[in-house]
Write a structure and sequence with these properties.
The protein has helices at about 5-15, 20-25, 30-45, 55-65, 70-80, 85-95, 155-170, 200-205, 225, 230-235, 245-260, 275-280, 365-370, 380-385, 390-400, 405-420, 420-435, 440-455; strands spanning about 115-125, 130-140, 145-150, 175-180, 185-190, 195, 210-215, 295-300, 305-310, 315, 325-330, 335-340, 340-350, 355-360. It has 18 helices and 14 strands. Strands 3-2-1-4-7 form a 5-stranded mixed beta sheet, sandwiched between helices. It has a 4-stranded antiparallel beta sheet with strand order 8-11-12-13, with no helix packed on it. The protein folds into 5 domains: about 5-45; about 55-95, no CATH class; about 115-285, Ribonuclease H-like superfamily/Ribonuclease H (Nucleotidyltransferase, domain 5); about 295-370, no CATH class; about 380-455. By secondary structure, the chain is an alpha+beta fold. The longest helix is centred in the C-terminal third of the chain and has 17 residues, at about 440-455.
């Protein structure tokens, strides 16, 4: 292949009236090569727009919103102008009518331990056979490109602290600066590097020796190292994977980071992120000696069912605390209930669901006590064994009464104590024979029987 410099030398010598033989001898190339280059230069004609409808092309280009394929189709359909696609694109470039011009892009280069980048992205996933949108939280070290991801049903300030706590533990430290976007999860007010970081997030960052720095508005390329990973995550990690619950989801995400994302070599690094991380690890700020657990605390009143409400779900508490105020601590995977300084309940937290109840059987003492009252009542025991007809009568009366028939048995005991057995038991036998279980009429029969005894009334007359 003839180089560009050689072509220029041939054309220069030809312009100086040198013959083909002389040019061939001077440059030590064949005469056929010289002839071919001179012939190509002679036959090459500059592309002009004089024979093309420039005005119509500009008009259709604006109508088609810059889609050159549609410009070609519309010109042929409406104006019967047939221009090849390659020619049309060259004309568009020559007329310089594109609005979104490509600009030169630069790169950001950082030393080890200087910067890390954090961002989130919504992904369509299936968790426990439910299709939903999960928030993918990602953190990447700018120097070594080491990546860590986790998924959450939503991403609030609580989930941000949970994720960053896990990410710093995974990295074994933190960089001095973390580039973020201008989301209100971390930013309290303002935008860009001059934004005000939320006080609790600022304290959280200082604990790990780092500062949050939002990028300028409309400058997402400032955190391109974390942005470009999201398409890789969707196309590699999420493809063909199923997740039983959120804990299984994040376990698989962590394993994927270790086995795939950080193990795969990168052309920009010339090595894998794990290998580059070995050079960066010594420059990270060390983790605190003690890292306090991440939780969100709030006050709740134990309701009449002995439950406290949290995120549209209910968790049981001891029955003795009904109507009292307790402190509920929401961890990522646990719910802990405190009364005063005493931990009174601990439950596994329901994540990504609503209207669920989590119950500790030890908190249901009242339900256990009710089971003990299903046998005969003490009133029924007092009436049993006196007479066989009375035993049969109270058995039938219990079937026709609500609950255990305590009210009816109490009234029978009162009748037994108020009236003599010579009148009480015969009337019970007669009422059993006729199926009479109305205690008001039973008492009238007892009184009528007594009246016969005192006043000589013959029941048969």
């Amino acid at each position: 292949m003839i180089s560009h410099d050689m072509k220029q030398a041939i054309l220069t010598l030809h312009q100086k009236k040198s013959k083909i033989r002389e040019i061939s001898m001077i440059l030590k190339i064949s005469r056929n090569t010289v002839r071919r280059i001179l012939r190509g230069q002679t036959n090459q004609k500059p592309l002009t727009t004089s024979k093309y409808p420039t005005a119509q092309i500009k008009e259709v280009f604006q109508l088609c919103r810059g889609n050159v394929v549609r410009v070609q189709e519309v010109l042929k359909e409406r104006n019967n102008i047939d221009i090849s696609y390659s020619t049309l694109t060259r004309l568009v470039r020559g007329m310089d009518i594109r609005q979104n011009k490509k600009h030169r892009a630069g790169t950001y280069n950082f030393g080890p331990g200087v910067e890390m980048q954090h961002d989130t992205s919504p992904h369509k996933v299936v968790v426990g056979e439910r299709k939903l949108t999960a928030q993918c939280a990602s953190l990447v070290l700018s120097y070594s490109r080491r990546l860590f991801i986790q998924y959450y049903p939503r991403f609030t300030r609580f989930e941000a602290r949970v994720f960053l706590n896990e990410a710093f533990r995974y990295m074994g430290g933190a960089c001095t600066r973390c580039i973020i976007d201008n989301t209100s999860v971390i930013v309290a007010c303002g935008s860009g590097p001059d934004a005000e970081i939320a006080p609790d997030m600022k304290v959280f960052g200082k604990m790990f020796g780092m500062d949050f720095v939002p990028h300028h508005i409309k400058d997402p390329d400032r955190k391109a190292k974390v942005e470009r990973n999201f398409s890789f995550i969707e196309g590699n990690f999420l493809a063909g994977r199923t997740f039983s619950d959120w804990h299984d989801f994040n376990r698989q995400a962590r394993k994927w980071c270790e086995d795939v994302a950080n193990h795969k070599p990168k052309r920009s690094l010339g090595m894998s992120p794990d290998e580059a991380f070995l050079m960066e690890k010594a420059y990270l700020t060390s983790l605190p000696v003690y890292i306090p657990p991440v939780y969100q605390a709030g006050t709740r009143i134990v309701d009449v069912e002995s439950y406290v409400s949290l995120d549209a779900n209910k968790y049981s508490a001891p029955e003795r605390l009904i109507g009292k105020a307790v402190e509920v601590q929401k961890h990522w995977d646990l719910v802990v209930v405190y009364f005063g300084h005493e931990k009174v309940a601990k439950h596994k937290r329901v994540i990504g669901q609503k209207n669920k109840r989590v119950t500790d059987p030890r908190h249901l003492q009242r339900i256990v006590r009710r089971l003990a009252h299903r046998g005969p009542s003490k009133e029924e025991e007092q009436l049993k064994g006196i007479h066989k007809d009375l035993d049969l009568y109270i058995a039938e009366l219990k079937k026709r009464s609500k609950g255990r028939g305590i009210r009816q048995f109490s009234r029978l005991i009162e009748m037994k104590r108020s009236y003599p057995q010579e009148s009480f038991l015969p009337v019970i036998s007669r009422a059993l024979r006729y199926g009479l279980y109305d205690l008001n009429r039973l008492e009238q029969m007892i009184l009528f029987h007594l009246a016969g005894d005192f006043f000589g009334i013959d029941e048969g007359s």
